[in-house]
Amino acid sequence: MPVGTRNRIIQGGGLHHIAVQARDWDESLRFYRDVLGMKVVAEFGSPQRKIVLLDIGDGSHIELFQPKAETPSAGSPAPNDPVTHFALATTDTRAALEHVRQAGCTVTVEPKDVDLNDQLNITIAFFLGPNGEVIELFQVNA
Question: Domain 14-69 belongs to what topology?
Answer without folding.
Answer: 2,3-Dihydroxybiphenyl 1,2-Dioxygenase; domain 1 (3.10.180)
